[in-house]
Amino acid sequence: QVQLVESGGGLVQAGDSLRLSCKASGLTVSNYGMAWFRQAPGTVREFVGTIRDSTTRYGDSVRGRFTISRDNVRNTVYLQMNSLKSEDTAVYYCAARRSFGGVYDYWGQGTQVTVSS
After folding, report:
1. Reduced to 3 states, what is the DSSP secondary structure of residue 87?
2. Residues 6+ apart with CB under 8 A from 109
3. Can you give the pLDDT at residue 101?
4. Closest residue by Cα to residue 81 from 52, 113, 47, 108
5. pLDDT tens digits, one per residue of 53-102
6. What's the start-to-end Cα distance of the chain, in Å?
7. 6 vs 25, 76, 94, 107, 117, CA distance in Å?
8. Number of Cβ atoms within 10 Å of the Cβ of 115
9. 51: which strand partners?
10. Distance between CA 11 and CA 61 in Å, rounded?
């Protein structure tokens, strides 16, 4: 069965950095479009970024601060978050899709990131 397990969340201060991990089992991350989403309390889920093949893209609110990378040996996708702001506080979710432009078929359980000011 497919499993996506996020880890690395925690409580940090504004301006700090944090790296989230999404370890996949049951699928090979290099064969999927992998994405990060986030959802703050009382809000709709927001797109953070994706990596597919060698291409990454990011949402406007995180571009220039966040970086997505992939380790094919560990079958893990990472989200490096720098210059964190209080607005980045959210539950961060990892997701995977097989087809370009398709739905995200698989989701992790989420990891909480809290940025204090």
Report:
1. helix
2. 5, 6, 93
3. 80
4. 113
5. 989 999 999 999 999 999 999 999 999 999 999 999 999 999 999 988 88
6. 40
7. 12, 10, 7, 10, 24
8. 20
9. 34, 56
10. 20
Residue whose token pair is 């990596």: 51
* One-letter amino acid for residue 44 of the chain: V
Rounded distance between C-alpha atoms, residue 77 and residue 79, angstroms:
7
CA–CA distance, 92 with 117 (Å, rounded to integer)? 19
Whether the CB-CB separation of 34 and 103 falls below 8 Å is answered with no
Question: What are residue 19's DSSP bridge partners?
Answer: 80
Instruction: Give CA 15 to chain center in angstroms.
Output: 19
